[in-house]
Design a protein that fits this description.
By secondary structure, the chain is mostly helical. It is built from 5 helices and no strands.
Length: 85
């Protein structure tokens, strides 16, 4: 298993995205297809080998049938007031 290149707050973001995908009942390949990418794109994100920008976050949330604002509020609620970027 590859070592994550990101930790802390980013790890929280990834956990929330993985949970959202699992709730949706979609596979990595199905989410990837909905955002016109291949499965490795989602795999790299879920293994914390690739960061997610805001527009990607919105597209991924919508692809999984989630409200991006609600999902982002969940991310904000789990991230400490101070963190490294």
């Amino acid at each position: 298993m590859s070592k994550s290149i990101f930790d802390g707050a980013h790890a929280q973001l990834i956990e929330i995205l993985i949970a959202a995908r699992r709730r949706s009942g979609l596979t990595q390949a199905e989410v990837a297809a909905k955002v016109s990418r291949d499965q490795t794109f989602i795999s790299l994100i879920e293994r914390s080998q690739r960061r997610v920008d805001v527009l990607e976050f919105i597209a991924l949330a919508r692809a999984m049938g989630e409200d991006p604002q609600r999902l982002f509020a969940e991310v904000i609620a789990t991230i400490p007031a101070s963190f490294k970027i």
